[in-house]
Amino acid sequence: MPPKRETPTPAAVFEYCELCRRNHNQGRRHRYFPAHRTALAAALSRFRSKLSDLRRALRHPSSGPRSSLWCPFCSVDLVDLDSRFACSNAIYHLTSQDHLNGVKAFLRKHGGQMDQVESYRISDDELAKWEKCCESLSTEPEMLSEGLIGPTPGLLKDIRNKSTSKNLDNFAESYIPYSSNTESCVVMPLQSPTNGAYYPNSTACHGSSTFGSIPYSPSCEIFGVPIKHCGLIPSHEQQIMLGTDLLHSVDTKMKGAQSAILGNEPNSSVSCVVHAQQKISDGNNGQGLKANVHTGAPPPWLEASEHDQENAPLRGYALPSSRKGKSGKLNPKRVGAAWAERRRAEMEMEKRGEPVPETSDSSWLPNFGSVWQSGTRKESRKEFEKNHKPHDEKSNKLPLEIKPYISKRMRVGSRASRMIFGGMPNKCNKRGVFLSKKSRPANSGMLVGAFNYYVSVHLLLLIRDGSITSRGNMEQGYVLKYNYS
Amino acid sequence: MGSVLLPTLRRKREVDAAIRDTLDKVLVLRFGRAADAACLHLDDILAKSSWDISKFTTVALVDMDSEEMQVYVDYFDITLVPATIFFFNAHHMKMDSGIVPVKLSDGEELDGPIFR
């Protein structure tokens, strides 16, 4: 038996599948592949959705915007060109016989279910109904253009309706009076940041109105400190600006005027103003006297305006002060806020090379606080003023004469000796010699205790009229023989 | 003297510039001497912590032995060595030094001051 010859399969012919968008040589089997079935289902579902929209237009014919529909069965793009009503070309096509044939061929080729052919076309009855509606609509448009006050409810259903949009335009035009008020209602964007505060008069020039007769000098504008960037409440801001203002134009004459500020604002920046009133030209008490921070003396780093020019080349030596992020986030109520702002402006001016006005007058004082004293900085200033004047007198005196050291014991008068040696009665012999003994109790005073610490032998003290003689141990470090003549 | 990281101020105008130009940052001035062991210990601690606090604090050293510094020594009545003085915006800040121990990141303990 001859071997069964297998008929050679014809060379596979490649076909292009529109749904899968690829060439294949699978022949008729291709339509049963899952990928093809998926693509077919997707294409048919898309067309169904578009057809449903079209059927909606069938029920409510309107002259809406032109739409285009792609018929996948006939591979035809249906565009409304000359029709007055939307989707008219598509409707006519879908009812045509050619479309029906194309649907059948498509389904036959791609393996779709043939019983759903009717779902992909429009029946003649539906077409007839649609044509009736179109005719009725064509006779009604005159009624819509008479300028109704409000849009008709029917037109509102389809916002894409051209006639509706036209009517709404007419409506808007007819009610122009509202637009005339828009200019008065225009809200301009804020020109400057307010930081949540409201500034009816946000300029320092209005500070005088707040503080009565206090004169305002425009020197604060020299530093270019923008008020808008402070972000402070108006009263506080104005006070600070006025305070910085007064720091530069301070006179002793303004003392009375400035005293009014003190009662209103307990802010530390205002006390800065208070300090500015003092004439601290002689504040450079570098002679080791009591003019220190405890007594409220002016700080040395703000003395002598002549140092400013010397400090100018040392700006680079100044420790870098990096801003805390953006200056707008700094607490406006922080200590020395006014000083920092002014100083920053001065530094910027110096960088630009502009002449910086002298800021640290001899009378200017920082906001210092006495360390060992309690109370406000105002009280420390008062105390400083009390102590400062006698210091001036003392500083003018000649230095004391150099004299040999005289211990308190040796000095004329028993008062000093009593203070040193406490309340213990002085034990003196008949000759008036005071004897210091080890047996002296230790609790007779701190000085006595210290003295006893160093005393190791008896001191012979002979007090005569006008003559003092003492002999002491050399270990104590002193031997004194002093004779009055 | 002190640390390489911390600047040493020896002249009055240098201290003035540091105080006046350090804005919106705390300025810590250590008044002390290079020869003092306690000063060196404090300088080491300040140098180690200066980076951690560099965003809000500037630390500098002041040589008390300098002649021009005597003005500040007298003004602040500095008797104990070393002494730290705090400034903010050219304002001398009052300090209430407590005995609260502060442990630094490297394990050293320091009696921390209490800011008022």
TrEMBL record, chain A:
InterPro entries referenced in this protein's UniProt entry, alphabetically: CCDC84-like
UniProt signal peptide: none
Bias (Polar residues) ranges: 359-375
Compositionally biased tracts (Basic and acidic residues): 340-355, 376-395
Database matches in Pfam families: CCDC84
Region (Disordered): 315-395
Stretches that traverse the bilayer: none
Full protein name: TITAN-like protein
UniProtKB/TrEMBL annotation, chain B:
Pfam families: DIM1
One GO CC annotation: spliceosomal complex
Annotated TM spans: none
GO biological process: mRNA splicing, via spliceosome
Protein name: Thioredoxin-like protein 4B
